[in-house]
Amino acid sequence: MAVSLTWLYVFTREFRQKYPIPGFFLYQSLKLPFIFLILVIAYSYYLYVYVLCYTVLWTTWNRNWGAFLILAQLIIYLFVFHLLLFMFLWCLVQVMRTPTARVPKEYYVDEETGRKLDELKLNKEQTSKVEFPEWLEKRRAILEAFAASRGLNFAEIEEDTNCLRYCYVCRLIKPDRCHHCRACGYCVLRYDHHCPYIYKCISYSNYKFFLLLLFYGAALAIWTISTEIQGLLYHFMHGALYLGIQLVVGLIFQLLGGIFVIDVIRFHVSLTNTNDTTCENDKVPYLRFEGASYDMGTAQNWKYLLGRRLWILPVSTRYKDDNGLHFKINIPNQVVTV
Ligand SMILES: [Zn+2]
Ligand SMILES: [Zn+2]
Fold first, then answer.
1. Please, is 132 exposed, middle or buried when counting C-beta atoms within 10 Å of its C-beta (0-12, 13-18, 19+)?
2. Ligand 1 center to residue 112 CA distance, Å?
3. Which of 18, 133, 165, 250 could make an S-S bridge to 47, C-beta 3.0–4.6 Å?
4. In the chain, where are the structural domains located?
């Protein structure tokens, strides 16, 4: 998470626009981490089903038909492993196939407004409030007038200018919690981050699936590692070194993957507790109302994210009034939706 690959995404997108064929292959090469993930899952499946369940448990049961405990163990191992693997893959498919949440067209400014805003575009040093108050006033007025003409409401504004947040690339006023993803090249609703491992934006549309993917991934890693150790001991004790070494290699990958996923979960649990996104964790959103935040309290934050029923499944469980454009805001002594 800490390593930013944004420059690589931007370079790839621009390179692909200029040189479509080599650009296509460069773009595909960014999916290598995902292919590696699939290979580790396939290898883990072989280890679990063949090296642990077949060569250890099934063989032991075959030699000792009275050992019903071993048969029960075999059934439980296979059942839990396949259940967790199925849930993990289901979440992965949902994260990847859900379209990234984009901004509706009413937030895009018309040509005339865009041209006026372009004329007011100044570099960073020039945007000082003190030096250019008229410029700021003009910009603020154009944006507010456009928002009013479309009936658009916003709680978030730019901290340094107090203007509505405008994207010069997409030429739109950013809805609350929306940010421009440089990897995708467009603005994304409730933008969290662009995930390098699956090369996909994690946003309003797929954040719940992403969070469940982490949980099932961690559960799968913990279950697999803790049960495979039995197979490892068995093979080394019975002199089956080749199978034992295969398990050691698999366990190393699973352990590294498990530690990584648990670390990412820890971070996202802390974000969800306070209703923050990865992006907002880096730059705190600035709201029009004093002392306001999106934090509705831990229980409400989790409810908002996971929904009421079927929260455990990677299916949409959104509340009716949740559209990714307007969010409940906690202002001291009152709660409003802008
Ligand atoms: Zn944008
Ligand atoms: Zn993105």
1. middle
2. 18
3. 250
4. 105-174
